[in-house]
Amino acid sequence: MSLFAALWIAMPVYADPDDTVQAPPAEEIVRENIAEDRNSYEERNDGTITVNGETFQIINDPVHGNEGCMRMTKSAGPDSEETDWDVLQKAIAEFVEKYDVNRKSTDFEKEIAIIRGLVKECTYEVKRGSLENYTAYSCLVGHRAQCAGYSDAFLQIVRAVMPDTEVRYIHSDLHAWNLIRIGRHWYHVDATWEDDDRTGDLVNRYINLSDDEIESTGYHHWDREDTGMPAVSSADGTAYGPMTVQYYLLSGKTEMTPDPLVIELAPDGTTKMTEVRDRIVHAVKRSRGAGRHITRIYIDGLGYGIHREQITTIMLGVRDRLRQSLQYLPQSWFVYRDDEASYTVTETGTMISILTP
Fold first, then answer.
1. pLDDT reported for residue 339
2. How far is CA 21 from CA 14, 65, 124, 138, 195, in A?
3. Domains of the chain
4. What region holds the Transglutaminase-like domain (predicted)?
């Protein structure tokens, strides 16, 4: 009989990665909790379960998450008439009602409502050597979970209330998170790291990220072949990215992040910082004149007379010219943060997303 891949436990962003430890084999743990009543499913001898003619992995299934484990477990005791899966359905219904998920008009708004609800309902807690905090049941019923529990809960809620929306449960050796398709594109979502238990609210650093963005955060290295059917080859969405999330959190309104204006630096290094600053100012003013709050700009040719360290000076100049506070978030690799703004600079250029509240 084949064994599951060993379970690894990822710590939240503020935890010590050195505390990460390997758990016992998942199959060994699951079989200690197999329910006596097997009428609702058929357990197979290859680490899978068959429900209503569909066969999937007991745990860490990219499409079904940890549904199989919950169908085989009765946390209330072996004499209980309900499995964890049965109890979860009631918990999802209560969650959806409590956080007005079905009253939201778009998939994006429902997604944010689900993530917001999860960080309020659940506290991050690791149970080493156990699946106790590994499922949506632990997150929504026990209100304590590790990364797998948060990710499973996100998956199961989306499947329940957004049946036409594609969603995946993704796990690596160290962590678990989700992929969700909004519109035509896929995005990464990490509800675990969004949960700052110190504030009980979103941090908006791990919602609707692209492949490069999520992988630059660490722990998020994933096998694109293990994403279910149809496979998800890449997550390249930008329209509902971090600035769209931020504007929605601030205003309750949705504004999609636009395609970028490209500013090309002269290869001979003659482009001045003041020229770049003035073009960014002009682009923001045009966006505001058109009633938009998000401006996206790509500075092509980083290093041609302007280096990544000078982006901070340019953006301070933009703020001074506009006489308005800005939030800006460029993308991936090099990350800069101060009290008012954050951005990331690529190796060949700078993609800057600017929000004018």
1. 47
2. 17, 21, 16, 20, 21
3. 17-251 (3.10.620), 261-355 (3.30.110)
4. 102-191
